[in-house]
Design brief:
The protein has about 550 residues and is an alpha/beta fold. The protein has 18 helices and 14 strands. One of its GO terms (cellular component) is chromosome.
Amino acid sequence: MGSPETTTATAVLDPPAGEDPAEIIDAAHVPTDPATTAGGEELLTPGGWPTVEAVRIDPAELVIGENVRKTFLLDDYPEDKESIREFGVLVPICAERQPDGSLHVWEGQIRTLIALEVGIEKVPVWVSVRDTTVPDNEHRIRTMLRQLNANHRRIPMTRADDAAAVALMLDLGASVTRVAKGLQRKRSRVKAQAAIGKSPTAQRMLDDGYSLEHLQLIADYENLGDTDAVARLETEPSWRVSMTAHRIAVERATERARLQASLLYGALGFGVLTGEPSTAGVAPEFIPPELLETDTGDAVTEDTIYGDAERWLVYVDVDEDADIVDRETGELVDPDSVDWNTSDDSELEPAQGMRHADSVERRDRWTPIYFMPADQLDGSGLRMRPFEPVDGALLDHATDAAADREAARIARRRVRKLNERGLAAKERREKAVAELLRAAAPPPQAAAFVARALVRDHQLLSRCHAQPTARELLGIRNSVTGLTDAAEQSTADRAWVIVLGLVLGALESRIDKTLWRYKSTAVQDYLRFLAGLDEPLTYHLDEVEQAAAGLLDADSIDIDAA
């Protein structure tokens, strides 16, 4: 053959007897070899290349010639296999006809071998004729230069163009399933690319190292027209995008819930506020009812307010965990009917006539706070309530009272914001833990962490909600035999992952949105364990989690930061 065979799994395949000759593809309109200039002058040597003949041929008739690519396994290219199986070989193979008539592939050996493996009957080939006047070593040098250039000078599509094309195909009527199958991708990736392809901001960031998951978050908000969310997300480093996105999601959910709770008051004629206004100063712009009285000196009641609702504004505030409700039905439950001694012990029987603490949960209550705009006071039949002097200092007392009101408002807002962050952190953390528990083996830090947790609290796994939370994090649906079945069917390493899941589930079940207030050694160890995970499971603690982990003071958290 004039050159040594490649060391990869290749074969010289003689054409079967009686096979039809190669099918010629309009050879007159095929461009000349790329190694020639527009004028036909050969770039590497004097003289020109012969005209390329374009044919469709059985890949079994091709011989894999010497190739610079020697180290590969076809099984490392499953997506290429699927592509060729469905669409055939799209990029023509380059082969050179030898003096004996055989066709030696010099570019496209992997495409050729995959076509053979998946059973493609015909492949497109550009055939040139070997120049026998060129010495063998010179011919091999030229071939290797062409092979290296063919491999190194391929220009991939940008991720942004890729996403835009996916979005366009869906807009043109292709289904997600069809595009996913045609591109050998998961449906979730196609959906993410489709969203990104419609978002100028996400497209712009796509080639800057951000993950599809993070960019889909930005794209979803941009496609909804939420420019504030987009502005916050696009300035975040990649490791903070998920953290900020979860915060925004909780904020938006809270805003929707507040709006829903406000609709009743709007229907009654009240103006609805989206934020609690300041009542600072002795003559605030928004006057709370406790600063007002009737013309006869009586206190302002709800009946007074509702009787002239058009003059009043209402802000619906959330009273954290104010209601106790049945976990199944959502109905209000009398706190005195619950045996609170059964908390954290699912196996303990409640006292006679009482219900188990496991059967109830706390929920927020939306409470209206009323304000009268100062410009509505005239004609309302109300007046500012006079302050009684304290030690003869009337103004100082009024000023102090206003400062106290403002401090209380700021404190309420701070608690709301930190709790929102706590809820966002919990949702993000549970997602990260579920990803960790999909592994075939536990991380190296897990053994010591599990040992510490069980030694610290020997009843940890029997606490309320421990197993249900663990099952949810492990992705196990069957509540009766799911955990035992999973353990029995697992390898030793996977069984240890399940043990880790039981411990993580027990600890996670004890953490709610107020974790920033915690001083729990078990919770601190849990959060520090997550923060110590290595790539690709690296988990960055939110500020409220850092406070719970004892790494910073909750009072230092800037609630107005993104």
